[in-house]
Amino acid sequence: MTSSATTGTPLLEIDDLAIAYRTGDHDQRVVHGVSFRIEPGEVVALVGESGSGKTTTAQAVLGLLAGNGRVERGAIRLNGTDIAHWPQRRLDTIRGAVVSLIPQDPGSSLNPVRTIGAQLAEVFQLHKRGDRKAIQAKVLDLLTRVGLTPAEMRARQYPHELSGGMKQRVLIAIAVALNPALIVADEPTSALDVTVQRRILDLIDELRRENGTAVLLVTHDLGVAADRADRLVVLQGGRIQEQGPVKEVLAAPRSAYTRRLLSDAPSLNKPRLQRVAPGVDKDFAIVVEGLTQDFPVAGGGAKSFRALDGVSFKVRRGSTHAIVGESGSGKTTAVRSVVGFLKPTAGRIVIDGVDLTTLKGEALRQFRKRIQLVYQNPYGSLDPKQTVYRIIEEPLLNFEPIPAADRDRKVRDMMRRVGLPEGFLGRHPRALSGGQRQRVAIARALVLDPRVLVLDEAVSALDVTVQAQILALLDELQKALGLTYLFVSHDLAVVQQISDTVSVMHKGRQVDGGAIETVFVRPDSDYTRELIDAIPGRNMLVLASPAISLQG
Amino acid sequence: MSSRETSESELGVLDEGSGELRPSWATRLRRVPISLALSWFVVAVVLTWAAIPPFFTGYSGTEGVPGEQLRAPSLEHVLGTDGLGRDVYARIVYGARHSLTGAFVAVTVGLLLGTLLGLVAGSRGGWLDAVIMRLVDSLLAVPSLLLSLSIIVLLGFGTINVAIAVGAVAVARFARLARSEVMRVRRSEYVEAAFGSGGTFWAVLWRHVLPNSLTSVIALAALQFGSAILAISTLGFLGYGAPPPTPEWGLLIAEGRNYLSRAWWLTAAPGIVVVLVVLAVDRISKSIQRTAP
Predict the structure, then answer these.
(1) Best residue in A381, A382, A389, A444 for a mutation probing chain B (most B CBs within 10 Å)
(2) How much is the pTM?
(3) pLDDT (tens digit, 9 = 90+) per residue, A108-123?
(4) CB B292 within 8 A of CB B215
């Protein structure tokens, strides 16, 4: 049963599928009559924002709905057989063998106390394929095929000894082990850096071509879908907005929602949000010179790890400087030094004319008024016990006493500026969406009237439409308040849209830097070139706007 | 800006919060499990015993009636009488005040002292943390009964001294829990953000660390309340608590011991009351724990 031999019957046919979750006393329907099909060997991308029902649909295909989830109506036909109401035990016989899953989070999808080899072997044992020796040979072969070499060594390693990309390779190996007819890949690369993402997607592509496996690719990233899929299914609010061949959907989207997704998706050919008139040449809000940061290695005695090595950049007042790089490149360390949470080992950081590295104690605390940080994750950076009002008001309580009436006015003024209704002031963060929380975080950062705002991956956790809204808000605030931004991101497309200058970081060093046009069109380093090449969505650009060519 | 906002609400994002509106009191009350409701009932009854004992019984808690010795439970004496003709039910009702006050004092001592130590250790760190936690470890290393006994020997006998001794034993537990909660909260981004917006150490501690780490500590307090009743009763039973004729629950059980073969109700009745109260408090503690993040 390796591939569908029948002609005419699709491999997977989802017909008018409706799924509801039971919460409390009532059913909340999240998928409303979704229908689509996947032919053998085809890649179909299920695209949508969070809450669109794409993951729920994918889970239903595998029979892995959460305990309170239920298929209300419709059919899931695999090779013509409806499996929507099969009991779990019966589904066990096809899971792994006919349909398999590449899960989203490689960090938590592997058993931390068993070796990679044992976890791979388990797939064969569960489906009773061969004796111990034969299984061992198959495991080594699989590890080699997914590029984990030397296979003998990798088989003996534990998950914590592997990087995120390598763990994802193990999960892919588990998914393809029994040559299934269909692989469901649920955001397989969302947690990975772009260069790793490209290699992983290439690997899935390659294995798919070798075996003629069909792939249901669940993703929020239209760029990834455009590059890798044959057909697109666009979901919103549990309903299909549009489906069809990738080329047709991108070249001539029929639904308004798809058009908005396309226009909100950050990409390299987008016009920049802003053109800041270059101020006086010597007027720098941030000057970083030779910033070096060492961390002691745990258990390493006097040894230390150099996270930052001689990083220098200058940011003109009222402009935006971006720091880009992959995880481990040192960009977060750089930011933490610039806002004064870390004492640099060497180097100078001058913010608004004040050398931050010489400050400590009360002077450092007073200095914090001038520079504020907005975090990546608005779920962790707001105190769950405080109301929105208390959150925004708090910074005002830390300095010279301000009369309550003035504070109240400032808080309400800030709410208006970030585009939140005053009715939200009494709410707790848990009653807000991700985008709304990030607006609250921005309001808290701006209430002290700082000169510099540091944004640490501040839009990375948000859906593209919300992301576009927050970027527009930041742009508006910069113009209105004359703010200087230090914008940290791994997403070059977003960076290109909002920044004037950029530093590209790699392994603690700045490998490229300068005006955004220069760096993106004529990168100095191979690394920057690789980073730009790895950005997904090339296909989308070519198809959606054939006149513009990316090759610079 | 306004057009941006409407687009967000079109996506259904703005409406996300409305689903979390608090249900009405009536619906919330109906969702309370029966065991939890019963537990609150038991605690409420015992608390009113402690507050207004004469309301529940016409008999005295300390004065016996001559000629009424060792009567089995009957309509006249619901739980029988003891060797001096005192009504057992009356003694349990009057004893509630002694036992509960003791437990309350014990928990308060443990909660305040333990949370303070844990808060200081967790938020200051460094050598102070090391010193405090080693002290706490040595407290935990000594068997709790032995520790209580030594403290009572130092302080002298009596209900309040017993309570303080029991509370001192609980200090170690509270300190450990408070410290781990404080460390968890301190690592969170909102605490760093509070420092980043110019918050002083004490302001951040008061506004963020304390409120966010207290839920678990309060759940432990409820749990310790049950253990404290047991511990105080144990010490009363051993004769280290209130002197007779105080109707303390542990003492009641101890006094009944001599009559165990002839008058089972002397030990069984107060014993069952202690068990019920401890179970009820444990159940309530568990429900508080569940609301913790």
Answers:
(1) A381
(2) 0.76
(3) 888 889 999 999 999 8
(4) yes
